[in-house]
Design goal:
By secondary structure, this protein is of the alpha/beta class. It contains 18 helices and 27 strands. It folds into three domains: 3-244, Glutamine Phosphoribosylpyrophosphate, subunit 1, domain 1 (4-Layer Sandwich); 248-448, Glucose-6-phosphate isomerase like protein, domain 1 (Rossmann fold, 3-Layer(aba) Sandwich), CATH 3.40.50; 452-597, Rossmann fold. The termini are close together.
Length: 610
Amino acid sequence: MCGIVGYIGDKNCVPIIIEGLKRLEYRGYDSAGIAVVNDEGCKLIKRKGKVSELEKKVYEEHLDAKLGIGHTRWATHGIPSEINAHPHMNNSKTLFLIHNGIIENYLSLKKGLIKEGYIFISETDTEVLAHLIDHYLKLKHSLFQAVRYALNEVEGTYGLAVIYKNEPDKIVVARKGSPLVIGIGINENFVASDVNALIAHTHQVVYLEDGEIAEIYKDKFYTKTISDETIVKEIHQVDMRIDEITKGGYPHFMLKEIMEQPESLYNSLRGRTVYDEGISKLGGLQGFEDRIIKSNRIIISACGTSWHAALVAEYMIEQYAGISVEVEYASEMRYRHPIINKNDTVIFISQSGETLDTLASLKEAKKKGALCVGICNVVGSSIARESDVGVYIHAGPEIGVASTKAFTSQLIVLALITLLIASKRNLSLPEGQEIISALQMIPKNVEKILKQKDYIESIADNYVDSRNFLYLGRGYNFPVALEGALKLKEISYIHAEGYPAAEMKHGPIALIDKDMPVVFIASKDSVYEKIIGNIQEVRARNGRILAIINEDDDTIENMVDHVIKVPKTHNMLNPILSVIPLQLIAYHIAVKKGLNVDQPRNLAKSVTVE
């Protein structure tokens, strides 16, 4: 979750670190800090709240240094405060450390260090690392070796960066379970928890793997494992533009990303279908198609919005490919000892490719011999690297915490995987061509929906003061109901629940009255008549109804308070279109409530700790 930025080189590190921290604000945080080492010694500044507060203090102090580290913290151990903010330091104030992750055995380590005379000033687990490294420095080890020895005593996860007054020509970094990337420049090098913090300065990066530790100088770096084995790392080129991570004139990243969906969906589709053959081609799965097709079952593991995409895929694959599918919360799958064998294919979905629970589930499935398929947005991410094979969704950087364009691009890729499997099993050529034709129309259909954005905003006016929502859908639209409710919860802080419409009578119907808005996702599909019956039941109880319907539907339009019309498409692609109005409704309600839609409280873009 938290943000790490470090710099060593010939320039003043302070503006570079502050800028990098701002690039990482979307990840979520509650405090920020910076530590530098220069000819005058060391300086540490920390502030509760936004990076802008830290920035004011930093520039008041006129900091100037060639070596420094900065951090944005999301509280785990210890409340948000300046004392608990990172960087943390040793008692002699010569060593500074920033850390993402959780040190699980920090209490036992802390007790031992207190007995040695170390004084702790924070409530954090991270401070243990600063003192433990100091312990090894006092034994006359170099900073690199002191960090390495300390980490061999640690249980838990970490992405960390350390600087030391007595060795002012280096940053020592290490990773286990929390992402870390080294940026390579000319007479300057960088470190960050996310490439977004680096691309204004370099596109050359090195990804650290779990159990690796690096010593970074301004003109070189060395990498080993924490067991002291030398590693030669590959330098990767990051294909990302700075304009992709700016708002581009929009008031919020979330709105920009909603409006970018015609382009992001086109990019997800581009070059991946062959109409004449009625098939899809996914280069990332090449050579493994037969193994996937012959799978006993397919398991899909994900968290949050990606889990909702997985639910849609369950309908797709079972209906059109005829393979049994199970959908798992990664956070549950990793701990419940699932029965997985070598004849299974397990698909892992994560926008960031760094979701800790999903990554842990992947590693467990690999141990059991299953084919592991990654579906990610971020090139070079941990899940992308750990998977046996995979597919990038090519949605482009998604900065808003509430996922929008990544979700719809995930659905496109899952539809392409369904088509790939089904076309080699039981799908006819005309059926395959029908799906491809519908896929190719998706970007234009999304454009049509987005042209209603002002109308959708006017509908949102009617629901700003609502305290609860119910979202209902059947079949493919049930996961959309879940996703619509999640979006509203995430950014407007309104309680909302998604349900299969048929389950309404098994409990939720008791909640319906004039103060309970009910959102129906009501495409003209095989259960259309059933959903009309559910609408009538809500009407009979004075519920306020907003319905997402097809353009040619004038039946439901006369039954409800408000409608938003979407183009008709292939049955399995309905969720891609029907979710767009729900994204806009959630966005506009949150804006009208005066909330920060890009950085909702208590949430982070990438969940890299438990």
